[in-house]
Amino acid sequence: ALLGLSLCALSGATFLYHDYCVLGAGPAGLQAAYFLQEAGRDYIVFERGHAPGSFFALYPRHRKLISINKQYTGKANSEFNLRHDWNSLLSHDRRLLFRRYSREFFPHADAMVRYLEDFASLLELRVQYNTAIVHVTLERNGQAWNGHYFLLTDQDKKSYKCSSLLVATGTWVPNVVNFPGSEYVEGYETVSINPEDFAGQTVLILGRGNSAFETAENILGVTNFIHMVSRSRVRLSWATHYVGDLRAINNGLLDTYQLKSLDGLLEGDLEDLAIVKDKKGKLHITLRFYLENRNISAGIDSITLPQDELDNFATRAPYDRVIRCLGWKFDFSIYNRSLKMMPGKGNIKKYPQIKPSYESSSTRGLFVLGTASHSVDFRKSAGGFIHGFRYTTRAVHRLLENRHHGVPWPSTVYPITQLTNSILKRVNEASGLYQMFSVLADIILLRENATAFEYLEEYPIGVLAELEMQTGRKVPSGLFVIIMEYGRNFSGADKDVFYYNRAVGEAQHAWQSNFLHPVIYYYKRLPTEHEMRLRPPEWPLPRPDAIHHIVEDFLTDWTAPNAHILPLRRFLENCLSTDLRSFFAESCFLFAFTRQKLPPFCQQGYVRMQGLVGSEGLRRHAVQAGLLQDYTPTDFSGDTPPDSHHRSQDQLLRDQVIQVRPLQHLVNAKDE
């Protein structure tokens, strides 16, 4: 901050400079701030409210979150447990796990407000409250990181300058549909949440998302009946496997509709509707074309209603109230034209246009985080929700660390013998892969001659072709990409996900798995941008040189030796033309005399005098498993105690290890 102030003084400007400016102190903004602070970067978070998470102070209106808060999983692994904790942000502080703030499976929204306040204060994040940024523009400068600075102005006309802008303001502007009579509609953001205010009333709800059903659920027991109208059919999250669709906790109105208890659902384009109010204050639904060349203020008697021509018109009964529950959209109003912040197209028009790297499609250095970045995986994965964007925010931070500070994407190098175990560990524990399925992937970069590999976690696969540039890591000789996927034809609003024999249990049919399961793609070289664009429809990646599905598992526990581990190991061996099995020292000793090339496990372990120390219990287990021959004498003679034989066996094993080293040199010399 001192550097920023000195620069401003030299230039005669009146702005405050920071390397990174973060807009919004909601979950995504605080998550970004945490990573920036841990890296020691110069940043500031601007929050228009007096505390973090101001959105959750009002929403959801009926105060019950639909993000699960599972207290117990039967496991102590913290990474695994995050798979079933949809509210916690990522940090090193164990106090900041959401289960310490609420024990409810669907927590109260006030618990989220308290949690975010503590997250900001306990970690001492640099948040400037009561600061509403009202204008953002660009200042071209060749010396800046991205060729320009971002200039920000707040409500008090104070100015700020930053090199990189992280937008984490979410989607908070209500979606409003204008049609004749829309002035009679109440908004979700202001409608009463007291059920008694609806006692004995007839209600029409516009919308069919969770906010609409949440509102209906609150008043279901006191109204005459509730009708719900939207342009699309209801989408159930258990059928689409998308957590943003209708959740079971809110779907009571589906019961009363299908069991014919007066409530009902209708489909229709809201822009074709019109509302007419009669002298008694009742609201009548009609169609816009009936009002053409009519004066709506002339009174209902002069207006043709649909039931005048079709006496069983579905919405012929008048309503006491009409409530709009159409969700929210991104606020584009504060961005100057120079930033070219444009809305997406089609069903993602409520989000700004961004690349799969979460960077603006038009402005370098501007990244969109959190809910507003959901266009990357809308209706596909969890990027619009805390349990998804906590990982995409970390991915963006790693991209920025490499781009601006020369810090490569974190990675770990292992010997090739650890390849199978490394994959199994991640697919059984990793939360980022599990939540951001088909979006974030683990990348395994093979070293020369496949003797070792480099492991990168949770990289955005949409920019796989740019991996070397984005991560600072090289791809010398092929790679594996590990992601989680649902079956290709299993998810959808019209799918029956409870059909008989829906699960696949045999490894040979793993490619037909329906439920979430790991998929490993093998490429001999890094796919190009052209190949990424031409990938098959609904494929997250281009066609690989080889692909392996690990069969789905009812317990999401992919550790079965025959069903999961063995097929995976054989797939990896086929790709690498090597033997990835582990061997006892006696087998490696035998191979040294009988093979021209030792398996990697023997090369990297046994001949370097590394590996398991032999014992009688281990030897007996190997004999029983048929891995070793039993040379144990069946009869002892003389006064030699039995344990002296064990000592002689151990001594022999040590002698073999010592003797095999020069033999291995001879084998290598022969190969050369």
Automatic annotation (TrEMBL):
The keyword Flavoprotein applies. GO terms for molecular function: flavin adenine dinucleotide binding; monooxygenase activity. Its cofactor is FAD. Keywords: Endoplasmic reticulum, FAD, Flavoprotein, Glycoprotein, Oxidoreductase, Signal. GO terms for cellular component: endoplasmic reticulum lumen. GO terms for biological process: ERAD pathway. InterPro entries: Auxin_biosynth/cation_transpt (IPR050982), FAD/NAD-bd_sf (IPR036188). Probable flavoprotein which may function in endoplasmic reticulum associated degradation (ERAD). May bind non-native proteins in the endoplasmic reticulum and target them to the ubiquitination machinery for subsequent degradation. Belongs to the FOXRED2 family. PANTHER family: FAD-DEPENDENT OXIDOREDUCTASE DOMAIN-CONTAINING PROTEIN 2, FLAVIN-BINDING MONOOXYGENASE-LIKE PROTEIN (AFU_ORTHOLOGUE AFUA_4G09220). Interacts with SEL1L. May interact with OS9 and DNAJC10. Interacts with TXNDC16. This is FAD-dependent oxidoreductase domain-containing protein 2. It comes from Scytalopus superciliaris.
